[in-house]
Amino acid sequence: MFPKNKIEINRHLFYETSHSPSLADIVGKKMLPKIVDFCFIANPYYPDRKLLKLLQQKLPMLIKSYPSSNAIISQQNLASVLHVDPNSLVIGNGATELITIIVENLITDIAIPVPTFSEYTDKIRRKDYARLYQMNPENKYQLDLDEYASWITQNAITSALIINPGNPTGQLIPLSSMMEFLHRMKHLHIIIVDESFIDFAHEEIPSLLPHIDDFSNLMLVRSMSKHCGIPGLRLGYCCSSNKEYLTRIRSLLPVWNINTLAEYFLTQLKKTDAEYHKARLRVIDDVQYLYSELEKIEGFSVYPTGSNFVLVKSECGLNATDLQHILLEEYHAYVRDCSNKVGLDAFHIRVASQGKKKDQILIKALQDISKKQKEKKES
Length: 379
What we know:
Blueprint: H1 23-27, E1 36-37, H2 49-62, H3 71-82, E2 89-92, H4 95-105, E3 110-114, H5 119-122, E4 130-134, H6 145-154, E5 159-163, H7 175-184, E6 190-194, E7 218-223, H8 224-228, E8 236-239, H9 243-251, H10 260-267, H11 273-295, E9 300-302, E10 309-314, H12 320-331, E11 333-334, E12 336-337, E13 348-352, H13 356-378
Parallel strand pairs: 1-11, 3-4, 5-6, 6-7
Antiparallel strand pairs: 2-8, 7-8, 9-10, 10-13, 12-13
Helix pairs in contact: 2-10, 11-13
């Protein structure tokens, strides 16, 4: 049932980055087809084969062409599926490009609930600008917006971050609660809401995009790597009704900040929108199955999720680092060790659904580890 050969991994790479190191770097390119990457928190069903084939056909022409110097063209293509004003969008070379610009140039101090996506703390201009709000482990690291708002006010902080659904927690905050928070915090300089995983929350996407004009201090950030499954294309965007903020961000971007293949992909969004939503709903179904199966395994505590991944706490006697290495070396499954995330302890892993068939590999591996750890304790 499980791989017979234990693989060797380059363990030192895990300590050289705050993100997950490349799987190819860890195990070597020859081993890649034998590993299931559960770190890969992206849509496994989109682009579909038809769109991938089209991208392949266009590649020889695209790599010999310069990208457009007129950003509005790509903004219009993206806006056609988001149903927003194209002028409210800025498209980046991945969301991280935009996150870096925003936290370095648009804020002084900012409230950041932790644990969080590390780019928001790593790229800040001065470390003391990051005002960390520790979420309660006794409450499964769930963010209470009422308490968060009171803490921001009490500490006279001028800006705030919310990731919804949370990363790495997977917590989904209802749209109504987000709206209440935004109304209460209208006095803040800027509120960054990262919705990179919101498309996996429900059949009806509970996004703030339709309400962008109601809050002049709101800056929505999204990574297309996640919901469109295209991390290699490096596409992300931010959306705001604040023209001053948008102008500032645009002034700090290079003229050709996205490549021609990424630009061409954007031209296909409207044509493939129906296929995208079918893929999105399939992911939602898969992650619900993954969550329900993981919940049954003794020795692991599973957190509620509104995303395409699940946060899991190891309670079987293994810390997250040991569990990650065992899963990779012995079961050929790569998961995210979250022990290097500020505000989280050393016993959490994050696992992203890769489809029910591949998810079975992880489920059976954790069942086997649970059994072995139980036998070890009883012996």
